[in-house]
Amino acid sequence: MKHSNGCYISSFICIASLTLLFACSKGDKDLKDPAPIPNAQESMTNYLVHQGFDRQHIVFDKDRVVIDGDIIIGMNDLKQRTADWEAEQRSGVPATEQKRGPYLISNAYNNNVKFYIDPGVPPVWVTAIQGAVANWNSVNGTRLRLSIVNNLASANTRVFMGYENSNWIARAYLPASDNKPGVTVEINSKYNTLSATQQLFAITHEFGHTVGFYHTDQATGTQIPGTPLTDPNSVMNSTVLPWNGFTAGDIKATQVLYPL
Ligand SMILES: [Zn+2]
Question: Structural domain of residue 41, as residue ranges?
Answer without folding.
Answer: 9-91
